[in-house]
């Protein structure tokens, strides 16, 4: 069975493209302004039409974003998509992987601290200051700088 993108010859309006790719029309326009998606010529008296290649391009962008790539990084990957720049693309992915691992480590530290705070809230009862609120007022060196 053919994919929907394979059956589409430049017949889609921007609304049809948005629906087929699962994005908003404004997202398409934004990607066009950013140079991530080309804007087809408008025929005299007609409307612009999009096709399977445009769906594929949007799929590429959205998939890369779900993997954590910024739009600038997506633009760089698109520049490398001719297949002859695999080493450069791999280097971008390795850098992204290192970033993801760093974020995971930070989230694990946050999880530990929150777990400890919740535990203290459940065990320290009576006429005392809430341990969670008190800790937030004091600041936490265990979590690191929240702006990292």
TrEMBL record:
Keywords: Activator, DNA-binding, Mercuric resistance, Mercury, Metal-binding, Repressor, Transcription, Transcription regulation
Pfam families: MerR_1 (PF13411)
HTH merR-type domain sequence ranges: 11-80
InterPro entries assigned to the protein according to its UniProt record, in alphabetical order: DNA-bd_dom_put_sf (IPR009061), MerR (IPR011794), MerR-type_HTH_dom (IPR000551), MerR_fam (IPR047057)
Superkingdom in the source lineage: Bacteria
PANTHER family: MERR-FAMILY TRANSCRIPTIONAL REGULATOR, REDOX-CYCLING DRUG-SENSING TRANSCRIPTIONAL ACTIVATOR SOXR
Purpose of the protein: Mediates the mercuric-dependent induction of mercury resistance operon. In the absence of mercury MerR represses transcription by binding tightly to the mer operator region; when mercury is present the dimeric complex binds a single ion and becomes a potent transcriptional activator, while remaining bound to the mer site.
Protein name as it appears in the record: Mercuric resistance operon regulatory protein
Source organism per UniProt: Halomonas salifodinae
Phylogenetic placement of the source organism: Bacteria, Pseudomonadati, Pseudomonadota, Gammaproteobacteria, Oceanospirillales
Gene designation per UniProt: merR
């Amino acid at each position: 069975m053919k994919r929907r993108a394979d059956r589409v010859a430049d017949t889609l309006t921007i609304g049809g493209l948005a629906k087929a790719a699962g994005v908003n029309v404004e997202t398409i326009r934004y990607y066009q302004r950013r140079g991530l998606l080309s804007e087809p010529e408008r025929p005299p008296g007609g409307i612009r039409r999009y096709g399977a290649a445009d769906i594929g391009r949007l799929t590429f962008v959205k998939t890369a974003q779900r993997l954590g790539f910024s739009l600038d990084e997506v633009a760089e990957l698109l520049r490398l998509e001719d297949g002859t720049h695999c080493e450069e693309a791999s280097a971008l992915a390795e850098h992204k992987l290192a970033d993801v691992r760093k974020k995971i480590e930070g989230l694990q530290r946050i999880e530990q601290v929150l777990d400890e705070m919740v535990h203290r809230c459940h065990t320290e009862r009576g006429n005392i200051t809430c341990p969670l609120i008190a800790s937030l007022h004091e600041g936490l060196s265990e979590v690191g700088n929240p702006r990292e």
